[in-house]
Design goal:
- The protein has helices at residues 25-66, 89-96, 98-130, 137-149, 152-163, 171-176, 189-214, 218-226, 231-242, 244-259, 263-270, 282-291, 295-326, and strands at residues 69-74, 80-85.
- It has 327 residues and is mainly alpha-helical.
- A hairpin with a 5-residue loop joins β1 (69-74) and β2 (80-85).
- It starts with 24 loop residues before the first helix and ends with a helix.
- Mean pLDDT is 85; it is low at 1-7.
Length: 327
């Protein structure tokens, strides 16, 4: 009988190697195809990503960086320059610039009137084109879209001649009925600029809304017709609610575009129209600051304008989402 010390000890179990599943030839081909598809997609997206980073993100970051510094010039012609960290002083100066604040208020008031009018006309034209009784749809669609195809600077020059008091075809007939109006006077300039924007962008927004109307399922329209919903009742109760995402999209685009207003008033200023201020819009005010050599204050004003645009567009988007969830 053996002693306990001489009893054999059991060896620990050997670890079982993990089994890697073997792919079938078809699986390997699918994996290879997926990798090639990902590489192809990356190749197509790379040019956009490079341009977006270099032409959009990098300038924004540089403007934010410049807004925290100030340049001091010394010497007879400002030959000696020194850059110092200024903190938030440029932003304080931007909010203390009465011309800059006035331009923001001016553009906001213009957008509150012009954007609803423009989108209302775009929706009306889209509904008329989408109606069953519409004729020559392609012709009217092209005619409504043509103003957008015309460059904004050329359109502004054209309207500057059409609205000039001595040349306008509108002032003569109005004066015969006792209405003497100068569309390029200081009190009428915002209305005239709003008219230019509406004329140029209504067709663009109409196409977006019209495309959304074309995606409405035919069975929905047939069910509405069976329920006796026709004409304007069909448009109000069926079509408009179904194209609500397109209306939200065009509104956000219009808010961003209104905040970036530049071409129309700049052309009128270049034409020496007395009723247009060189600081009519925030971008014009910022550009003038750059021309005067205060690029740091201009950078701060650009950042402020970008934040205001973000708050307005994102706030409207969240408001519509909340209203849609409550409906």
């Amino acid at each position: 009988m053996s002693s306990p010390s001489s009893a054999p000890t059991a060896s620990p179990p050997r670890p079982v190697p993990a089994l890697t599943p073997r792919l079938s030839p078809a699986g390997r081909r699918r994996r290879g195809t997926g990798r090639r598809t990902a590489l192809t997609a990356t190749g197509f997206l790379a040019p956009f990503a490079v341009l977006f980073l270099t032409m959009m993100i990098a300038p924004i970051c540089y403007a934010v960086y410049q807004s925290f510094f100030t340049v001091h010039r010394a010497g007879l012609f400002g030959g000696t320059q020194s850059t110092e960290f200024a903190g938030l002083s440029n932003y304080a100066a931007a909010f203390g610039d009465h011309d800059f604040i006035a331009s923001i208020i001016r553009v906001v008031l213009l957008g509150c009137v012009q954007v609803p009018v423009m989108l209302g006309l775009a929706l009306l034209l889209a509904l008329l084109l989408d109606s069953r009784s519409a004729r020559l749809r392609k012709t009217f669609r092209l005619a409504f879209f043509l103003p957008y195809a015309l460059p904004g600077a050329i359109a502004a020059v054209m309207w500057s001649f059409l609205l000039a008091k001595s040349l306008s075809p509108f002032t003569g007939p109005l004066s015969h009925i006792g209405i003497d109006v100068d569309f390029l006077s200081p009190s009428w300039v915002p209305v005239s600029i709003g008219n230019m924007i509406t004329w140029g962008w209504t067709g663009y927004n109409m196409l977006i809304i019209y495309s959304a109307l074309q995606t409405i399922p035919a069975e929905v329209m047939e069910a509405a017709a069976l329920d006796g919903c026709t004409g304007w009742r069909l448009a109000w109760q069926v079509k408009i609610p179904l194209v609500r995402p397109a209306l939200v999209l065009t509104t956000v685009f219009s808010i961003i575009g209104t905040a970036q207003l530049y071409t129309e008033p700049a052309v009128l200023v270049g034409a020496r129209i007395q009723g247009v201020s060189p600081k009519f819009s925030p971008i014009m005010n910022t550009t003038l600051g750059m021309d005067l050599g205060d690029q740091n204050l201009a950078a701060a004003e650009s950042v402020v304008l970008a934040l205001i645009t973000l708050v307005l567009s994102f706030g409207f988007l969240k408001y519509t989402q909340r209203k849609g969830a409550m409906a």
